[in-house]
Amino acid sequence: MVLGIDISTSLTGFAIMGDGQLLHHSAVDLRKQKGPFKKAIALREHLEDFFEAYQCNNDGGWGASKYPIEHIYIEQPLHMFMRGKSSAKTLSTLMTFNGIVSWIIYELFEIEPQYIAATSARKQCGIKVKRGEKAKEIVLKHLLDNEPAFHIDYTKYGNPVAGSYDKADAIVVAKAGFLIEQEEEDE
Questions:
Q1: Structural domain tally of the chain?
Q2: Closest residue by Cα to residue 12 from 54, 44, 34
Q3: Is 93:36 a contact under the CB 8 Å cutoff?
Q4: Can you give the CATH number for the domain in which 25 is found?
Q5: Which of 138, 125, 123 has the alpha carbon at shortest distance from 174?
Q6: Which of 16, 68, 130, 179 could form a disulfide with 24 if both were Cys (CB 3.0 to 4.6 A apart)?
Q7: pLDDT digits (tens, 9 = 90+) for 19-78
Q8: Which residues contact 3 (CB under 8 A, 6 or more apart)?
Q9: 61: domain range?
């Protein structure tokens, strides 16, 4: 199984794929947590739930699960400035937080996470974003149209609720990770 994560200091998305099927998707709202360490603790608690559900023997005994998470893919943080979206401080904060969460993942699962750029993950999943289009909206629409297990709620104004885009990005990362692992197995 593959765990895909879209790490952010405000909303972090998670998705689990097994045998090409979406098994889980969720988002953790970190906006009320102050500072990177409190945010990291909140994410660790969510990750511990995954660890218990997927890595431990669920028959009440000790030991390994029959269907453990074997691969973890994280959306690679931005490496360059995007006009109107990122500053040096924003990139630095995101890189620091990404490193903290990556270490928590390694420590908990004993799996070294792999990093994949958002553009590469979308390409791997066959999602095309034309110049000028908003990638997050294209990804969300693609998943709503093509992934039966993916569903979202809407605000009273008809907008996706907070966390919807983060879950969608995590699903794309997990699916891309799954496809990459399949390619490597086939070689």
A1: 1
A2: 44
A3: yes
A4: 3.30.420.10
A5: 125
A6: 16
A7: 989 999 999 999 999 999 999 999 999 999 988 888 775 555 545 667 789 999 999 876
A8: 14, 15, 16, 50, 54, 69, 71, 72, 73, 174
A9: 2-186
